[in-house]
Structures are given as structure tokens and as C-alpha cells.
Amino acid sequence: MCGIVGYTGTQNAAPILLEGLKKLEYRGYDSAGIAVMDAGSISVNKVKGRIANLCERTDDGSSVSGTTGIGHTRWATHGAPTEENAHPHLSNDGRFAIVHNGIIENYMNLREELISDGYVFQSETDTEVIVHLLEMYYRGNVRDALIRTANRLSGSYALGVICSEEPGRIYAVREKSPLILGLGMGENFFASDVTALVNHTRNVIYLEDGEFAELTPEEIRVFDVTGRELIKTPSRILWDVQAAEKGGYEHFMLKEIMEQPAAVKATIAPRIRDGAVVFEELRDVGELISGVRKIIITACGSAYYAGCAGKYALEKLTRIPVEVVLASELRYSDPLIDSETLLIVISQSGETADTIAAMKECSQRGARTLAVVNVVGSTVATLADYTVYTWAGPEIAVATTKGYTTQVAVLYMLSVCFARALGRIGEEEKMLTEELQQLPRLIQQAIDLNPSIPLLAKKYHASKALFFIGRNTDYAVALEGALKMKEISYLHAEAYAAGELKHGTIALIEEHQPVVALCCNPDIMEKTLSNIVEVKSRGAEVLALTFRNNQKILSVADDLLFIPAVSALFSAVPEIVPLQLLAYHVAKENGCDIDKPKNLAKSVTVE
Ligand code: AGP
Q: How would residue 506 be classed by pLDDT, with cut points 50, 70 and 90?
């Protein structure tokens, strides 16, 4: 899980590579490096830690000369985060330098073979085998050497390669790891993410698995594994450059929380026409959903919790049974799937390794696949039979916020759309779409109703642990609320179905134990109220999340968070917002690195 960039042109390459790496730092940030080619020789600069250290080492790139280069920011998998293990890696003869994102699964065997052939390894990484294979297969033609090398590799890789014999030329290869080529004027680029390209060009080519690219300042050529040249059609990136920047907020996470009214509007508004939900990308919805006997939702992390929240509306409106299964569990569970199963795959990045693997597994067993994805052209989006984009815009903070709310919004819309196609709703669709259209406004109100969150964060930030409780849809939101708290503030936070407390967890409740109680579902409010009373009587401090006029809850809670009135069917979207803000302010109180929490990366492209 790393970020890679490449540049060839007439400008000094190093500052451009460093700027690109800064944009990709969210993909990994334990070490970084660049390799730049100048007058037939390659110079490598690598550091442990953040890109800032590399900028310091190279005077922001000005101390490195050369107009062709590759760069890497790393999140360690094989080998500790050290300077030796940082990329780029060099071949023993100094002819090749490479950067790699992904994992080489057969590297142990290859390493043994190469060592017995006399190659000397400088690092513990899986990547280093690739550069020695290149040296071994090189007979004066880099493309041939790359194809022969790729034939030996199992696993996932996006590679950037330079060779001192070919000044001005960079190579890029993709296999199960994202890689995008940027077309400039007299200069060309590659990167593992468009964020690193938008400052230079909006014209891009998405490489596909098994494709190789050769970039010079003048042209980009793409080949398949047999060496046959392919005609690729460039796409245009429509994202605003500013959209990928912080826009005046202290952290990307806060910016992205505040963007949610606009993001959810972008998800919903274009898909509601004349009181009906319309997904043009699903073509014939009747054909898609008729004959479906079971829906399985699969995803990881917050995307999985989005599935948990969406399940209620899907089941209620379609009356089709819905299971929500973690992708890392589903793929090894010998799942009961056939052609009457619809698999809904949720992923912000579209590159999560477990999610992709679960999707492939279910697809092989005959399921139809529908992806709910944010990143256009990502692997999940490409593999699915049907793809619905969330249109949330780029999400930079590791902790997802607008990614989650837009995913839930899409599930709500799918519920309505499927229910109509199945004939389970008629006139009600108009009322449901009106409620969906209110969601952006309700998110804004959920932000505005809670000015006291920074103060509450001061009260709760030093707690040893926080429990989040709720029932039904409130429980689904509690799961995501607790994850937000854990991942950015490092507080121990757990979500429990409120009715489960008395089966064990209540033993942990003691004097002043904070309990965040979610009470936004009128159908089961009374039951949650009983659970609040139970924990209160054991000394808990209760922070309740509910409606402003909910007198019963107001009278028992110690502190309050509010959401505006919303139908229980669609409540998760505004309901999560105060919990995102609470996690943000607690993390800020605790001095945490909010956008890049320790041990985490934005896109988890390893199993
Ligand atoms: C959420 O805040 C996390 N960073 C993480 O759980 C994330 O949702 C998960 O890794 C799935 O990512 P995806 O949506 O890109 O597939």
C-alpha cells in the first residue's frame, strides 16, 4: 500500500516527483525515495519517515539534477520502515531503478534463486527481486526484459522503472494495482492516483491489468504482455484541483465532514427525476433485480458499516433477505451463492484487496455484482457487472466521512429503485424521494445543531474507553461512530447492540464510564431508554444522540448531541455526522495526527 509517481520531460524531475509524492502521502508515509536519471546515470535519494524529510535531504529537489525520474512513498509490508527498505531499489549493476506498489507473493522463491545466481540483496523487501530479474533478463531491450520479468511474478504490482541505457524514458506496468498515465505537453507522467497528476494534466489513460507503458517526453505507448501495441483512449479528469486541497480547514477530515451536504447532494440529486429514483447506469433495473432471492453486501471497515446501515432500508423496501458480510470473511467462507444472488460491493477507493478478492470469489460462483464505488476507473468499478459511483469527490483523510455517507445514500436509493421495479412500492416512491432529497439539508442541520462538540471533547477526551450503544439502525450507526473514534483519537471505543449489554458487557460499566447512546429511531426508543437507565444506575456518564424535542432522553442523559427530525428509514446519514465531529474534536484534543492516523493507510491494497 504505497504511492508511486514518474516524470519525463524537460523540467527538473525531482521537485515534480516530490510534489506528486506529497499528494500521495495518504497512501503510505513511513519512508520515501526518488530516483532521477541524468547523463546516463541514476541517483537515488531515500529517507525514513515523511516526504518532508526527503524534501529536506534534497533541498526540495533542487540538489538533484535530471529530467526523468520515479518516486515512491511507502507503507511497510515486507521489511521494517527503514531507509534500506525504502524504494526506489537499484539493480546490482546500477542500470535499473524501480518503484513498486503491491505485493509479490512468490518473492521468497525468486529471492533464493537470485541469491544462488549471485545477486546481492540490499533490502528485506519483496520488491527487490523485480529489479534483479530485470538485470538478469536485460539483453539490450528493456521492454522484453520487463515482459519476461512480469511473467515470473505472482501477486499485485504497479511498477515504475527507469534504465540508465535509455535516457528520457520511463516504463510503467500494472497488475492488480492502480496505475494512471498523465499526458502533458512535452512531458508525461504516471501515478498510482490522479491526485498526483491534476496539477499537471487532466488528460489521463487508465492502465489495465497486464498492460505495459513506455513514456517519453513526446509520447506514451501501451503494450500487452505479448508486446503487441494497444490503442488506448485518454479520459479527462473532471475533479477540480481545489477539491483535492484542504480549502482553508485545518484538516482534510474536517473539510470532508463539512463537504457532506454537497457530496450527498451530488450523489442523490441527479438520480431523482419526477419523483422517481433513476439509475441510468443500471440499464434495465427490472432485469437486474427480478429473480434475485438474496442480496449479500460485502466490504471492509466503514464501507462494511455503510452496508450494515443500508441493509435496513433494503430489506424493508424490497423484502429480499440481505446479509452484510466482511469481505475478508466472505472470501474464505465457502459462501452459498448462485445466480439468484446479487452481491453489492462497497468501496470508496475501489482498490481494497479483500473486497476485490471477495468479489471475484462470488462472481465465480455465479453472483451478479453491483459495485458502489467512489474512485472512477478503480478495480472494483471495472470488475463489477454494474457500477454505481457515489460521486463524493476525492477523499484524502484516512478516516472516511463523505465516503461513508454517500455510500449509505446510494444504498437508500437502490432500496427505493429496486422496490419499485419489484412492484413493492407505488405512490410512496414520491414521498420517499422527497425524504432522500432532504438529506443534504439534514446533514447541514446535524452540523449546525451541535456547537458544543468541542467542549464535549474536552470533557471526554481523556476517557479510558467509550461505549457506543443503540438498537436497529442506531446500532449500525454506533458501529461506524465507534470506528471513527478509535481510528483517529486512539481511544478504546466499542459499539454494542443496546439489548446485548445485559448479556455481558454491562459488567464493564462503572462510575463515570462514558456511554454514547444513540436514540434516533422512534420505533425502539423506549427500549434504548431502558438500557440508558440501566447503565446510569451503575454510574455511567451518558452522552445521548437524539432529536431536540425528545424530552424523555433529555431528562436522563448527562450530555446531548442532536440530529434534526428524519425518518428512521434514512436516519443513518445525518445521524453519523455529530459522531464524526465528536471523534474529530476528541482526536484534536489528544493531539493526534488526524488525517494520517498511526498504522493506517487510506487504501488497503494488501490482504
Ligand atoms: C475508514 O475510516 C477506514 N479508513 C477504513 O475502514 C475503510 O473504510 C476500509 O479500509 C475500506 O476502504 P474502501 O472503502 O476504500 O474499500
A: confident
Q: Which atom of ligand 1 is nearest to the CA of 400?
A: 2
* pLDDT band for position 249 (cuts 50, 70, 90): confident
Give the 3-state secondary structure of 220-286. EEEECCCCCEECCCCEECCCCCHHHCCCCCCCHHHHHHHCHHHHHHHHHHHHEECCEECCHHHCCHH
**Statement: residue 244 has pLDDT above 70:** no
Closest CA to 201 of 173, 172, 234: 234
- Whether residue 390 has its Cβ less than 6 Å from ligand 1: no
C-beta of 355 in contact with ligand 1 (< 6 A): yes
Confidence of residue 270 (pLDDT cuts 50, 70, 90): confident
C-beta of 604 in contact with ligand 1 (< 6 A): yes
Instruction: Indicate the angle between helix axes 428-448 and 260-268, nearest 10 degrees.
Output: 170
Domains in the chain and their CATH numbers?
3-238 (3.60.20.10), 246-437 (3.40.50.10490), 449-593 (3.40.50.10490)
3 lines ligand 1 (CB under 6 A): no
Which string of b and e fits 40-68 if b means at least 16 CB within 10 Å? eebbbbbbbebbeebbebbeebeebebbb
Q: Hey, whose CA ends up nearest to atom 2 of ligand 1?
A: 399
User: Among all chains, which residue has been given the C-alpha cell 427500549?
Assistant: 527
602 has catalytic annotation = yes
Checking if the pLDDT of 76 tops 80, the result is: no
Q: Give 600's pLDDT tier (boundaries 50, 70, 90).
A: confident
